[in-house]
Amino acid sequence: MSETDQQIHRWQHDILSAFTDAGIGHVSYVPDGGHKGLIQLCERTNGIGTTALTSEEEGIPLSAGLWLGGVKSALLMQSSGVGNCINMLSMAESCRFPLVVLITMRGEWGEFVPWQIPMGSRVAPVLGIMAVDTYRCESAEDVAPTVRAALDHAYFSDRSVAVILAQRLIGAKNWGTR
Amino acid sequence: MSGLIERRPAVAALLRDRGDLLLVTGLGSTTYDAFAAGDDDRNFYLWGAMGAATMTGLGIALAQPDRPVMVLTGDGELLMGLGSLATIAQHAPPNLSIVVLDNEQYSETGQQTSATGSGTDLVAVAAGCGITDTRLITREDEVPALRDAIHTLAATTLAVIKISNTPQPRAIPIRDGVMLKNRFRHALFGVGA
After folding, report:
1. pTM of the prediction?
2. Tell me, what's the ipTM?
3. Rounded to 5 degrees, what are φ and ψ at A76?
């Protein structure tokens, strides 16, 4: 294992394994520090294409188009991006597209930036009213079974599914203020 | 400024002898234009999610690299998803073409002027985002060459066709999203997909 690998959390390796076992062929993202390790893993995995999005909402029609063409995908974003997706989620619901979104949380656990709290505290209700089935991971051991269940739920039952990765799991961003 | 190209004959010319072409249309007039040219299971008509057409086309193009994929949309729909042009340039799939029917207004909602009517140049925006084959089409006789370019799979192409704003009769295809999704996938992969 390289030095870089040791900086990547075990649970991020678990997510990659869940992706490869489910046949995920593409991962799109707006970068977040909480997803850094997973993005690195996906970028160096043969058989997984990656796309950096300019806005999270682009990931929903991208996932839809990939599925129309026969490719399974997953979308990574920070909690602040959920609000950017609201109207685009109407496409997933209207067409019953499978959609898998992994959300790293800000604004809920030892947050330094108060501006993260308004959207962060409303992620679950917003997903709920837009008909996205939502799972939540508080601990590293939760991640593998939850992501695997989310992938099955989306691709077996044609559902939109979000996995919320709690800020406590990721660790609050260190601002070096103490 | 309005060009002299009429939208329906132009779309019919673009879809002539379509072969393996896969089509995504933006909500509103471009959906009606494509349907008026002839329905096809490989037409994915958007009826909402304004700004989604180009990214839907990117997904299909990445998943089906050997087939031509055409996004047919309007200036207003593209303006809502302009960032997608930068995202598309990351991959620049050679089988993806974006055709923008630009009448410099929002026809569906009462002919309000769009940004292209007050100076925004979508060809320059696309070039600035890194799309290398960009075209401005102002004459009907330029359309057949664009149709041929779409089928050569040589480079991601964005073409702006300046069209007249003559009202067209409505031509309304299926609106059920699940049916549109399933018929498209069945056309590619068979009914078991």
Report:
1. 0.97
2. 0.97
3. -110, 135
